[in-house]
Amino acid sequence: MTTEIDTLATALYVRVDDLLKDSPHLAPWRPAVGISPRLSDAELVTLAVMQALLGYTSEARWLQHCHARMRHLFPYIPLQPGYNKRLRRTAELIRTAIRVLATDTALWSDDVWIVDSTPVECGRSKETVRRSDLAGWAEYGYCASHSRYFWGLRLHLVCTLHGLPVAFALTGAKADERETLLDLLAVEPQLTARRPGQTLIGDRHYYGREFERRLAQLDVRLLRPACKGEPERAGAHLFKPLRQLIESVNDTLKGQLDLERHGGRTPGGVAVRILQPLLALTAAIWHNHHTGQPVLRSLTDYDH
Hints:
The chain is of the alpha/beta class. It has a domain at 109-260: Nucleotidyltransferase, domain 5 (2-Layer Sandwich). The protein has eleven helices and six strands. It has helices spanning 3-22, 41-53, 59-69, 80-89, 91-103, 126-131, 177-187, 190-193, 209-217, 236-256, 267-290; strands at 112-123, 139-143, 148-160, 165-172, 198-201, 220-223. Helix 5 (91-103) packs parallel to helix 11.
């Protein structure tokens, strides 16, 4: 365990604890009379972020590690069933914490966003597909980047050039990327209203006259590669390096934060396990920004 992740954990705990003091309604509902939890909600969120940063996809193994190595940070470590149940009930707090940390950085005001979607596989066998509680949400889809079919979901992510999440959604594998993006911007109109002339960079899937017209109504300028048969579009020389940047953000989520190894079996379980790496990425960028680190998306100091 390094002092760097201890420092991040302490800073994150204090920030989430302050958030809960200012907005107590974000905490999961509990009876007015009863036994107070020995592990606070702020500590639970901090544990979830550290689990993602340290690469523990198994909750049981993670809690065993905590019992052996983290008593100096968490005097009480719950058992796996209790940790799992409380984590699922804390999804709304985690989602809010992502936004709070993101807005607490100078990156939040960046005038360039990137948008992409990435597969989140949820099962491979036919028996899993037939019996899974995710059936009806998860579905078969195709990943062009890896030339493979998969059964699961898609994470649609709008982020800054440094990978700071701005908006995200988890949909079925066949959901239209353009409609999902428009829905994301419609749910939070203040995102574009406060940023006139925002530039959005996407790949070839974000095309269509009607789609671009609706973005233009939001005063969003779309940059994307030209489709087959189209003349070269403005900013074409930027797409190759920026496309690599988009892929690197996805690689951070999948390669370092184990996005696809979530292990969720129910909608609530999958949702909170997707929120975990998103919060971990946001917390790392937030902490690196406030401590003056040269590479804001670097997780090297926190993953061992």
